[in-house]
Amino acid sequence: xxxxxxxxxxxxxxxxxxxxxxxxxxxxxxxxxxxxxxxxxxxxxxxxxxxxxxxxxxxxxxxxxxxxxxxxxxxxxxxxxxxxxxxxxxxxxxxxxxxxxxxxxxxxxxxxxxxxxxxxxxxxxxxxxxxxxxxxxxxxxxxxxxxxxxxxxxxxxxxxxxxxxxxxxxxxxxxxxxxxxxxxxxxxxxxxxxxxxxxxxxxxxxxxxxxxxxxxxxxxxxxxxxxxxxxxxxxxxxxxxxxxxxxxxxxxxxxxxxxxxxxxxxxxxxxxxxxxxxxxxxxxxxxxxxxxxxxxxxxxxxxxxxxxxxxxxxxxxxxxxxxxxxxxxxxxxxxxxxxxxxxxxxxxxxxxxxxxxxxxxxxxxxxxxxxxxxxxxxxxxxxxxxxxxxxxxxxxxxxxxxxxxxxxxxxxxxxxxxxxxxxxxxxxxxxxxxxxxxxxxxxxxxxxxxxxxxxxxxxxxxxxxxxxxxxxxxxxxxxxxxxxxxxxxxxxxxxxxxxxxxxx
Length: 504
Description:
By secondary structure, the protein is α/β, with parallel strands linked by helices. The protein contains 22 helices and 9 strands. The two termini are 53 Å apart.
């Protein structure tokens, strides 16, 4: 049964996987993974240590072929494996049909489909979390814990917040009222995985400024996550949530017995809940992709509720004392599959829309195409802020032969993501010698809605506003490409005309 959900997830993951554009986080993966191993190692000492193992994996993946499809294939595979493992857990703790329903519900979930097509680590983390969950069940039954500790440790190295999975598993064991032997074995495996994670935690804590943009979660944040887990359409959401609540009645199955609900509900709630609570009393750390692995618990909880509904009295009494048998198992299984198809039809518009690059926070390919229409070899370019250089790093062909006026040392050589910029005074001097300059920028920076911290960016903005005028612009979502030219003056003579109209 596990193969069917895995194939369904694989098909949905591959459907339009070539969206024709990367967004900024994918572009970081793309440009970092193509660096040499020493360059990646140097980068991780200053930034993105939490993604180090993933970058190492992607270095070898992109060595085969460096394009957007290959960039996303590991995530597609991770999502397919997760769907199959969800089915295995459901079948092991309930029935094969429960596993089939849960695995397919995972496969048609828009959140699972979204991260299946993203060149980041989160789908692989979800696969590791479900692998660890399955190995937890084996440890409870057979007393073998080395596999659980190994998979848990690797998963946490893919993203350190996966360590919250240990708390969810602890709640599962508590609900099952397992004996001291299980606690001892599972605890030793978890401690070993946690100890292996310590070096990365120490390094990543020094890089906490990277997530300074996060905001404190609210009630709306929690509600939004529940809707992502149980269904984006109201009908699907309320039915699935209701079944999960029904399934919660079977959360405890007696001493030493792990139940499907006893695995599903802690997996769904504990990790996200803890991260949200921590984010209320400390610098915020919560964002939904950090807890993608918890999504797997939602379809398992729904399947647990569906099984309880199906298992209502084995025989239904009739007037006169006659009874009729419960519907055959095959019919129940088919009825559940029909329900999953209806869920897919309800959510299909969301799945289709998600394949549009415009649904991501930004579309660097579209921005690069806009630049390519006007930028020529030898032209001067500025990136405001420096992270906007990500567009040129992901799509270098659009900026081939241009002069980056602010760059002092490229990212690969400096151990940074976007390179080291020259001092503000040097950038001002370089700008003094150009008649026109292309600017690739966050529109919020150009319009003043966002105040840049960098003195280099502030200098660039001041010079552009004082000494140049806008001669052309292409807007792509939150980003823009602008051509700035110096006004005509008697001494300088006419400024060369831009190669394109004011908007292109």
